[in-house]
Amino acid sequence: FVGKVLVFRPALEAGSALLTVLVVVAVINTAISAYYYLRLIVVMFFKERTTDWLAPQIPTALAAVILITVLGVFYFGIFGDRVIEKFSEKIGPAVVNIR
Question: Which of 10, 19, 74, 78 is the most buried (most CB within 10 A)?
Answer without folding.
Answer: 19
